[in-house]
Design brief:
The chain is of the alpha/beta class. It has two domains: 4-214, Rossmann fold (3-Layer(aba) Sandwich); 222-342, P-loop containing nucleotide triphosphate hydrolases (Rossmann fold), CATH 3.40.50. It has 13 helices and 15 strands. It has helices at 14-24, 38-51, 63-75, 101-104, 113-126, 130-138, 154-162, 196-205, 222-229, 262-269, 291-294, 308-316, 322-332; strands at residues 4-8, 31-35, 58-62, 87-89, 110-112, 141-144, 167-172, 210-214, 216-217, 242-243, 253-257, 272-275, 288-290, 299-304, 335-342. The protein has a six-stranded parallel beta sheet. Strands 11-15-14-12-13 form a five-stranded parallel beta sheet. Helix 3 packs across helix 5 (113-126). The N and C termini lie far apart (55 Å).
Length: 360
Amino acid sequence: MANHLTLAVAGSRKTQGIVERCASVPRERRVLVLTYTQANQEELTSRLRQYAGDHHHVEVLGWFTFLLRHFAKPFLPFKFAGKRVLGFNFEGRPRFMAKGVARFMDPSGAVYGCELARLAHELIQDSKGALLRRLECIYDEILIDEVQDLSAHDWEIIDTLLHSSIDIQMVGDIRQSVLATNPRSAKNSKYSYAGAIHWAREREAKGLLEILESATTWRCHPHVAKFSDSIFDPSWKFPETQSKNETVTDHDGVFLVSAKHVTQYVQRFKPQCLRYNVTSGKAFDFDYLNFKVSKGMTFERVLIVPTAPIAQFVAHGTHLEAGSASSFYVAVTRAKQSVAIVLDEAGSSLLPVWKPTPEN
């Protein structure tokens, strides 16, 4: 099958896998690599320059740039005669109940970011096949990184691509679904964030793509990997993570730390401190990163200030809703060797409780 989705756990070197694929394909093969965030684009471009610099038919684009360059700009006249795309308005929104061109573009001719995918999807239909034929003439293969970040009308576009002659290769980790291209849209909301797994399994059942599992992490210590697997309800049916991290230190695994010992813990182990948002963790004057901001990063050790639902999960095993589980999964899997969770009441948790001793 030409279309594949690889579900990769945190630390599975999925970005490197994309780079190695691009480096190994025939030089005449025309490959487009798509991703959502600017940071991912820069990382992919840098690595491709290093590992596949002699392959001149590999291109990296952001998702919005892709929709602007290959959908909106060349084909807007098929929908709105005489109109041209003169910019991109990421923050703006059309006025309530706007119709026609005002639904998609501001008065200066810039396309609203929140309406770009809807416009792109409608242009596929309005162009009567010309848009897709053009795309098929430009690319042999499209690689989509961080596919779980897609949302709303993006899924309609991917469905169209799956029926094209272009080979579609997608990579992502549904468990790290904390970003979205259009978080406010109700379109295909059942597939947003962690719900993307349902979209994928439905398409696999229809024979449109094959789902592959990449369940090996080179980042997380085995104890950290095992704990990360427990964050999602078993009904999600994610595979067990296998750890290739064989490093041994004097402090490996997942621990609970009471608030009164947090300062000593941070002084002793110097973890990266993580919180859900700016309103969390105010009791401690640490240099925090928010969970979502830390996505894509790696640290030797992390300390997590939990939200109330996360604290309930750790202390009593109360299953988290999907969004909270994804945020916590991202935080936990930033760590290579150890994770500490600030919690005064351990409840029924079997995690070891760290306490300062003369030795540490």
